[in-house]
Design a protein that fits this description.
363 residues, Dehydroquinate synthase-like, alpha domain, 2 domains, seven-stranded mixed sheet, two-stranded antiparallel ribbon, binds nicotinamide-adenine-dinucleotide, binds the ligand O=C(O)C(=O)C[C@@H](O)[C@H](O)[C@H](O)COP(=O)(O)O, binds zinc ion
């Protein structure tokens, strides 16, 4: 079992990663007067018995469960309200603990529900996807609005993260792709990362358990280090948003769920690298390596053809890193050394055109 400590101003907590990590849940429930689970309904159907057993073993067999729609569909104002009502009816107090059981979508919703209920109660992240090596750590929680991704939310750190890697065995290929995109991001933005090596060697169809665990743990360490320095995204935390300005626009244009988060972010990272070439003179070699990697691993890059620049630009203007009328991008002049840079509409359009050209979808 790997253990990574996350230290923020709100609190410090453990991330425990490895087979059987769920079995340690009792260690984190001792002071709770009531425990309540908010679970992705699909995950509950496949793996719910494991969490039930772990809770029973910790003397918490009477824990109430609230099932929310699988994936992105739960990140709505409506399901946020339903979750608040559930916590009230379950008898939760300020001394209670919520358990989030699912991927990043369920974790974001359950985390926000915990941040808001009685103005903030404890929650534990029990992530079940590869992507959640990113989402379960760092305390960003929230839901979508029709006009923009993660528009309503709060910073609220979990009291622990129990990442049971046995649960990853049932992930479908598109969710492996989605989660690994964030692992690539972590390698790209870290001065200690090995992005070029990863882009040449990793093939998802042949990836063994050890390699997967290596990238998960390495990504969590990158994230923990950055969040420890800048919990509320005043400075370096912005780098964790690499690829997300354009990526979130694609995700929103695809109707939340039409493309996975990681697939959209992969397209967004290609866009950000092209912008880095155009605005900072970055070497095209890295962009080409990422394009080859994502084509080899089946990312649906050409879907971008369905979303015109004007539509994506409209969403990009809602990006949380933007000031009114001015977009700010995370660029990568050199791998491992991100920086923030403004880009005006024409610069954004040129990069969009170049992306479509390289993907062979320019109309
Ligand atoms: N808070 C953060 O810092 C942060 C970071 C990155 C992403 N996110 C958010 O995370 C969300 C994406 O999360 P995700 O990629 O984990 O996907 P997800 O939570 O949307 O789940 C994707 C699908 O996988 C299924 N699933 C989950 N675990 C499974 C398992 N073990 N076996 C089989 N199926 C399983 C779900 O039921 C769902 O159908 C997005 O909303 C994104 O914005 C948040
Ligand atoms: O933790 C962060 O900070 C990130 O930006 C991680 C991202 O991978 C994640 O998708 C996050 O939810 C995006 O946040 P947002 O502030 O752009 O909504
Ligand atoms: Zn992300």
């Amino acid at each position: 079992m790997e253990e990574i400590r996350v230290s923020t101003t709100e609190r410090a907590y453990d991330v425990r990663v490895g087979p059987g990590a769920l079995g340690r849940i009792g260690d984190y429930l001792e002071g709770a007067d009531r425990v309540a689970v908010i679970a992705d309904e699909r995950v509950a159907g496949i793996h719910g018995d494991r969490l039930e057993q772990a809770l029973a073993g910790a003397g918490r067999g009477d824990t109430p469960w609230f099932l929310v729609p699988a994936g992105e569909a739960c990140k709505t104002v409506e399901w946020f309200g339903n979750a608040q009502q559930f916590l009230l009816e379950a008898g939760c107090t300020r001394k209670s603990t919520v358990i989030a059981f699912g991927g990043g979508a369920c974790g974001d919703l359950a985390g926000f529900a915990s941040a808001a209920y009685m103005r903030g109660i404890d929650f534990i992240q029990c992530p079940t996807t590869i992507l959640a090596h990113d989402s379960s750590v760092g305390g960003k929680t929230g839901i979508n609005l029709p006009g923009g991704k993660n528009m309503t939310g709060a910073f609220h750190q979990p009291s622990a993260v129990l990442y049971d890697t046995d649960l990853l065995e049932t992930l479908p290929p598109e969710e492996i792709r989605s989660g690994m995109a964030e692992a690539v991001k972590h390698q790209l933005i870290s001065p200690d990362g090995h992005a070029r090596d990863m882009l040449v060697t990793v093939d998802y169809s042949e990836m063994d358990e050890q390699t997967l665990l290596h990238y998960i743990v390495s990504g969590i360490r990158v994230k923990a280090e950055i969040v420890g320095r800048d919990e509320r995204e005043g400075s370096v935390r912005k780098f964790l948003n690499f690829g997300h300005t354009y990526g979130h626009a694609v995700e929103a244009a695809a109707g939340y769920g039409g493309m996975t988060h990681g697939e959209s972010v992969m397209i967004g990272m290609l866009y950000a690298l092209i912008l880095s070439e155009q605005l900072t003179g970055a070497d095209r070699g890295l962009t080409d390596a990422l394009q080859r990697f994502s084509e080899r691993n089946g990312y649906p890059l050409r879907s971008v053809a369905g979303y015109p620049f004007e539509q994506l630009y409209g969403y990009m203007q809602k990006d949380k890193k933007a000031s009114y009328g001015e977009l700010h991008f995370v660029l990568l002049p050199e791998d491992g050394h991100p920086l923030m840079n403004k880009a005006d509409r024409e610069q954004c359009r040129k990069a969009d055109e170049e992306l479509r050209k390289r993907l062979g979808v320019l109309t």
